[in-house]
Amino acid sequence: MAYSLQLSGMAPTDQVWSVSQLTSAVKRLVEGEFMPLWIRGEVVGCKAWSSGHWYFGLRDRSSQVRCCMWKRDAERAGEPPQDGTEVFALGKPGIYEAKGEFQFNVTRMIPTAAIGAAQRELERVKEVLHRDGLFDHARKRPIPALACSIAVVTSTAGAALQDVITVVGKRWPCCRLVVVNARVQGDGAVHALVRALRLVNRIPDIEICIVGRGGGGREDLAAFNSEAVCRALAEVRVPTISAVGHETDISLTDLVADLRAPTPSAAAEMAVADRREVARQLDDLAARLAGGLGSRTRLAGERLARTADRLHGSIEAVLQRERHRSDRLAAQLDALSPLRILDRGYAVPVGPDGHVLKRRADFAPGAPFRLRVADGDVAARVESP
Amino acid sequence: MSIAQDLNRLEEIVRKLEAEDVELDAALALFEEGVSRLRAARERLGAAEVKVQTVLEEADGDLRLSDLDG
To answer: Could you count the other beta carbons within 10 Å of the beta carbon of residue A36?
Structure first.
């Protein structure tokens, strides 16, 4: 028996699709249609394969969907969930072409119970911190403009630190960064962050404190919502910037810090000045400094010139006066000169050693001496006592 | 002395010099101080790369700062 393929004119035989063509077309259609989305369901039949991937189902009352979680995401998620656990799962619908099956590719999974408990704790902490005034705007301190010494509280293993170093290195390389290493997620993160924040208060010369981490999931940010960390942050004695990189959520440290930055890079940018801008400012000050002194010396020069004119006049007068005075003095001196007395007929006896002989005792019998008279001196000798 | 302090002092010096009621010797002293502040600030700005340190608390409670590699 021969079958004839009853094809309408609209679907000629050369356009029959292969299975692969169909699955890949549907795959494109489905996967192109959806952005990552959260679904809520109950886990059924979760299997963790030795490859590291997890396969399971998620169901609600009327429907079920196959799910898979690739090794990289499964590793971050920790233990595979027990059957019956209600979860939130983030993922994208896709088509597994080899089997032509529709599945939901999960990248993150959180038990709904955990969210409930975390949410309640968050509300409680928010409430007490608000009551204690830790969110008050009046508390916010300004970030110093030209800080050269900044503490960075984060994990030395995280991307946040590199981002901060890169930005600061580019904008403000004269800065010193002091990294205070702290776990930022998982067990012990709260304790480590509190300890690190307290340590900041003991490092000398710190001007700003940045606390943060790179982006993470909601539960990864838990430490930054803890009451102890928020209180320790409020007690940091220098202005603080919270940089808990996450696009949608804000953490409580964001509310407590003096400034909130969306990412660690942004925090670094807010914390430091741009070297080129400050260099321009210095150039401007240098020009004004030179100009200031220039005008000051010009002014002084003009004043000096005026003074010199007056000085010159007064010196002339003084000199004139002094000249007259010295002439008068010279005349007086001349009158007082002993030589003028000799003119009047006096004579002065001078001994061989040049001393004037004034008393009888100065004249030894027979001793020679000289008599100085008006126009010279004459030899003489003592005749008898 | 920080760059901020240098800049503030420079501002002050320049304002005083521009006010013109300073004695010449005072003006010269201000100018000299200004030049040395400028030089200091420029030297500081010229630092080639950011200095990264880590801090550790030792057993006795003392802090120890050390340079972080890379």
So the answer is: 12
In this prediction, residue B44 carries a pLDDT of 85
Q: Do domains A19-111 and A132-276 have the same CATH topology?
A: no
Q: What CATH number is given for A132-276 in this structure?
A: 3.40.50.10550
Residue A334 distance to chain B (closest CA, Å) = 48
User: Is B38 strand, coil or helix?
Assistant: helix
Nearest to B14 among A145, A175, A288 (CB): A288
Instruction: Name which residue leads in pLDDT, A37 or A341.
Output: A37
Judge: A278–B18 Cβ closer than 8 Å, yes or no.
no
Of A210, A186, A207, the residue nearest A196 (C-alpha): A210
- Helix ranges (DSSP H) in chain B: 3-19, 24-45
Name the residue of chain B whose CA is nearest to A281's CA: B7
Over residues A26-33, mean pLDDT: 92
- Please tell me the distance in Å from B23's CA to the nearest CA on chain A: 8
Write the pLDDT tens digit of every residue in A283-329: 998 888 888 777 777 777 777 777 777 767 776 777 777 777 767 76
Share the mean pLDDT of chain A. 86
Q: Can you tell me the distance from the alpha carbon of A224 to that of A265, in angstroms, rounded to the nearest whole number?
A: 18
Indicate the helix (H) or strand (E) that contains A39: strand A37-48
Edge-first strand listing for the sheet containing A376-381: A348-350, A368-373, A376-381
In terms of average pLDDT, the best of A6-10, A139-143, A241-245, B26-30 is: A139-143
C-alpha span between B33 and A294 (Å, rounded): 15
Give residue limits of the domains in chain A.
Answer: 19-111, 132-276, 312-336, 347-381
The listed CATH number (2.60.40.10, 3.40.190.10, 1.25.40.20, 2.40.50.140) that belongs to domain A19-111? 2.40.50.140
Which residues in chain B touch residue A203, judged by CB atoms under 8 angstroms apart?
55, 63, 65
β A176-181/A149-154 pair status: parallel
Confidence of residue A27 (pLDDT cuts 50, 70, 90): very high
B chain contacts of residue A175, beta-carbon cutoff 8 Å: 50-51
Mean pLDDT throughout A5-13? 57
CA distance A212 to A224: 8
Classify A256 as helix, strand or coil. helix
Q: Which of A173, A291, A293 faces B27 most closely, judged by CB atoms?
A: A293
Exposure string over A127-162, b if 16+ CB within 10 A, otherwise e: eebeeeebbeeeeeeebbebbbbbbbbbbeebbbbe
